[in-house]
Specification:
Layout (H helix, E strand, L loop, with lengths): L3 H21 L2 E6 L5 E2 L7 E2 L30 E6 L4 E7 L7 E7 L5 E6 L6 E2 L4 E12 L4 E8 L2 E9 L6 E8 L4 E2 L2 E7 L2 E12 L12 H8 L5 E4 L3 H4 L22 E2 L15 E2 L5 H11 L2 E6 L19 H15 L5 H8 L10 E4 L6 H17 L4 E5 L7 H12 L4 E8 L1 H6 L13 E9 L13 H16 L4 E6 L3 E3 L10 E3 L4 E3 L1 H10 L5 E3 L1 E3 L2 E2 L6 E8 L4 E8 L5 E8 L6 E9 L18 E8 L2 E6 L3 E8 L3
Parallel strand pairs: 1-33, 3-16, 16-19, 19-20, 20-21, 21-22, 22-23, 23-24, 25-26
Antiparallel strand pairs: 1-29, 2-28, 4-7, 5-6, 6-15, 7-14, 8-13, 9-12, 9-15, 10-11, 10-14, 17-18, 26-27, 28-31, 29-30, 31-32, 32-37, 33-36, 34-35, 34-37, 35-36
Bound molecules: alpha-L-arabinofuranose.
């Protein structure tokens, strides 16, 4: 044995360089530039919006006052009485006799010393920016006395950093406005509404908006949050959810007709996420519907995204009450769907088209899709879905219907629904998967074997749930985003089957969330895109128009050697765009050969996102811990040589035309 040892060592010394060389040999990939496998839907990568995690009230909707119309179950929730330096008075809640906005506030002041009134706590606090104007609006009516004035103040502790005043109230309800300018930027500002003079003033619908809303619209949306969406160039906007569509029970379902028109006609209701969930409770979560269906359509238009409303099919959330409307009483629900199409697309002289025009949009919104039900299951769903389908197709054959395959990506209910929907010749089937990161990597071939002639797929809600921190705190870490990217190459390779896809949920307030992970996080001043956001954006801003084959040894790559790949042609920009995800810790060399029409030599752009720590994540404090970097590469003799970093998402772009 001892004699053999030097011989073996010698042989190893000879073989080792060869082995190392073999390991370092680049993987040969080929992209066939002339073989358009299928088109990519122009709406492929979109957005899923739901008022969960304070996404609308306290988030995208820039209203700063919580419980602005005193309609919460506890009408003073969010409000406090202010009475200092000897001031004396009472705060009452009163009832309007009619309408949906029943409650208002009576401020009764008994002397004229000190400060008397109410303060509002905002949505997990309130923030202002230096130099920015804040418009307070409210309706008021004089109940007793004269010469009353209403002062509003922005406060940093005891220090006033903005103020305004209005007077001249009469015994009729009328709208008033005060504009204040903030002297400093502050998260945690106090907001006081103070009555001056002895007497009684009735006051309601106290609202405050910053002037820097998206597109400068009055009572508009938070600009930084919309900008993050616009930067994604989304293909569609799905709204209003999610479970919120179905409601805890049918009374709590989303009724779009109650969300349009004047604010005082939009009935405030308890948010479906005002429940105990993920060991958290949010008892102050209500829906003001400041973002209602008109605003969703308008936002879709602003973003250049197809609107994709999802409506209740007459079944409340089956995880909650599962309340069912009797088939005989389903007409109201079906009519809601038909009327919605008229609201979006109908002429201005139609009943619902006229309402759209009244709200300032005579042109149609060009609605193309409508969803029937969210995550519903069982024969009770199919029975209802058939009735909706018949009615919608009879009146609007051009509208594409989205049906649901339930809450899970597999299992008995999923198989049952798919079987039934196939029989029904369903057009788009909504699939949801909230699964561990490994599921996403292992399912990159999920759609390779889907029936090419069956219904198309809408991957309507998905997110990799990494539970490495804790069961309930699923962070938007790099492992989750990397795994989603690997999976998304599979969606793109199968773009003939998968026509739409959206990560979910979209937004979360750092101090008001019920569900994580989420794509975009914010507080009252700041916001950032998670690692997952950047992955979504890389795919949606590099969508392309046609799928091209990218193969190793004639086969697609979906996890072999920890690599995942897809490629598209972009007819509009004249580019070939490839996406390669390396989930291994080691760097990988690839040699990509461009087959077909290409001039030979040139340059390309590589957008790379990589991190050696799978636990890495972005945050308000460090919003760019993981973000894409751009570099260039050379194409020589129709070949691209790259070394892909370990744990990286790579998007390469090559201009094909001269
Ligand atoms: O995205 C959060 C929730 O997940 C949605 O409301 C629901 O559709 C799904 O169960």
């Amino acid at each position: 044995m001892n004699k053999l040892k030097p011989l073996m060592l010698g042989m190893m010394a000879l073989l080792l360089p060869l082995l190392i060389q073999a390991q370092n040999e680049p993987l040969l990939l080929e992209v066939d530039l002339d073989d358009k496998v299928s088109d990519v839907s122009p709406n492929m990568w979109g957005l899923f919006f739901e008022d969960i995690n304070f996404a609308a009230d306290g988030g995208l909707y820039a209203e700063m006052i919580k419980n602005y119309s005193f309609e919460f179950e506890n009408p003073m929730m969010g409000w406090r009485r202010v009475e200092d330096n000897g001031a004396k008075g009472y705060v009452f809640n009163r009832n309007h006799p009619s309408g949906v906005n029943h409650k208002y506030l009576r401020l009764q002041r008994l002397n004229n010393t000190g400060n008397f009134g109410v303060s509002n706590e905002g949505f997990r606090g309130m923030a202002v920016k230096e130099g920015l104007k804040y418009t307070v609006t409210f309706i008021a009516k004089l109940a007793k006395g004269d010469n009353l004035a209403l002062n509003t103040k922005l406060l940093d502790g005891g220090e006033e950093i903005g103020e305004g005043s209005v007077s001249g109230f009469t015994s009729e309800w009328a709208e008033y406005e005060i504009v204040m300018t903030a002297d400093k930027t502050l998260d945690g500002v106090g907001f006081h509404v103070l009555l001056e003079g002895e007497g009684e003033l009735d006051i309601d619908m106290i609202s405050m908006f910053p002037e820097d809303t998206w597109m400068g619209r009055k009572r508009g949306l938070r600009k930084d949050l919309v900008q993050l969406l616009a930067d994604m160039e989304p293909g569609f906007l799905r709204f209003p959810g999610g479970c919120i569509v179905e409601g805890f029970d049918l009374e709590n379902r989303y009724e779009w007709k109650k969300t349009i028109g004047e604010m005082e006609d939009r009935e405030v209701i308890k948010n479906r996420w005002n429940i105990e969930f993920a060991h958290r409770t949010t008892p102050d979560y209500y829906q003001s519907f400041g973002i209602g269906f008109f605003e969703y359509f308008q936002l879709s238009e602003d973003l250049g995204a197809e609107p994709l409303p999802i409506l209740s099919c007459g079944l409340a959330c089956q995880f909650n009450t599962g309340e069912q409307v009797a088939i005989g009483a389903l007409d109201e629900y079906v009519n809601d769907a038909l009327d919605l199409i008229e609201f979006a697309n109908g002429p201005v002289d139609s009943k619902w088209g006229a309402k759209r025009a009244e709200m300032g949009h005579p042109e149609p919104f060009d609605l193309k899709f409508i969803g029937v039900g969210n995550e519903n299951w069982g024969p009770q769903y199919i029975e209802r879905a058939k009735i909706f389908e018949k009615a919608i197709k009879a009146a609007y054959p051009e509208i594409t219907i989205v049906s649901t395959s339930g809450p899970f990506p597999d299992g008995h209910e999923f198989d049952y629904l798919w079987g039934e929907l196939r029989e029904m010749d369903a057009e788009l089937v909504d699939e949801h998967y909230y699964r561990p990161p490994s599921w996403f990597r292992e399912n990159a071939r999920r759609y390779d074997d889907y029936d090419r002639n069956g219904p198309k797929v809408f991957a309507g809600e998905y997110a990799a749930h990494s539970t490495t921190v804790s069961e309930s705190w699923k962070r938007n870490n790099w492992e989750a985003a990397l795994s989603e990217a690997a999976f998304m190459t599979g969606l793109e390779r199968n773009a003939d089957v998968v026509r739409l896809a959206s990560y979910a949920p979209l937004f979360a307030h750092v101090n008001g969330w019920q569900w994580n992970p989420d794509l975009i996080w914010f507080d009252n001043l700041r916001s950032y895109g998670t690692t997952n956001y950047h992955v979504q954006k890389l795919f949606s801003t590099n969508r392309g128009t046609d799928v091209l084959p990218i193969t190793a040894d004639g086969k697609s790559l979906a996890g072999e050697d920890n690599l995942y790949a897809s490629a598209v042609l972009d007819e509009d920009s004249g580019e070939m765009i490839f996406k390669i995800v390396n989930t291994s810790t080691a760097a990988k060399k690839v040699s990509i050969k461009l087959d077909g029409k290409y001039r030979g030599n040139g340059e390309g752009v590589l957008i790379e996102m990589a991190h050696e720590d799978l636990e890495a994540f972005n945050s308000l404090e460090n919003p760019v811990a993981v973000e894409p970097q751009e570099k260039s590469f050379i194409i020589s003799k129709k070949t691209i040589e790259l070394e892909l970093k370990g744990q990286s998402v790579n998007v390469g772009k090559v201009k094909l035309s001269k």
